[in-house]
Amino acid sequence: MSKIKILQEGQSYTFRSYFELPYEADEILAELSYSLVKSRLSLPKTRKTLEGLSEIQNKLEDILPFVNLSNETARREILVSPILLEIVHCCHCQLRIEYPLKVNDWLKGSLDYLLRSTNDLLVIEAKNDDLTRGFTQLAVELIALAEVAENNILYGAVTMGDVWRFGKLNQTEKQITQDINLFKMPDDLKDLGEVLVGILEGVEN
After folding, report:
1. How do beta strands 153-159 and 163-170 pair?
2. Which end of the chain is more exposed for a tag (fewer CB within 10 A), N or C?
């Protein structure tokens, strides 16, 4: 039985297209010459004290009972943006929102958030409804970034606002690792912040 090709020559695919494809992530990534591994990632963590995150955590715990988070815009505004702005404040990295990227007809679109420091790149793809398919899209975006980045190792995270999952791309091995661990908001906010800053600082782990 011949293997069915998912991606068709001559067809155009945006990053969003990969979220909508009804195939498993490993099958899609295989057609982009990458393998997928699921395991517990040993993520970089900063040693800095991130005092601003405690304030954000307290505020979230206070307001979440009163806010409806039923759509992606609400989750971005209430749960994602305050955290990312605090990360920018902590490490003075560049933040790009809806950052356009085109490598070829199979790798193109806009990255929800791109945090850029001298050491690493970090993509965060905000998804309201499906963390699994969101990770597929994130993985494809990391593959696209790897084509234009100097880093061999790239990190990304997919989030629905209240839950975050990390991924790691190794360009040499053509492999993407999906972290089996989840960071849940607001309880894991301190740990999440330490990882985000650690990645951008290039902390060895």
Report:
1. antiparallel
2. N
Question: Domain range holding 55?
Answer: 30-201
Whichever domain contains 37, its CATH number is 3.90.1570
Q: Is residue 170 part of a domain?
A: yes
User: How far, in Å, CA of 142 to CA of 157, rounded?
Assistant: 10
> What pTM did the predictor assign?
0.94
Let me know if residue 173 belongs to a domain: yes
- Single-letter residue type at 58: N
Please, which residues have CB within 8 angstroms of residue 58's CB and are 6 or more apart in sequence? none
pLDDT band per the 50, 70, 90 thresholds, residue 32:
very high
- The string of pLDDT tens digits covering residues 135-159 is 999 999 999 999 998 889 999 999 9
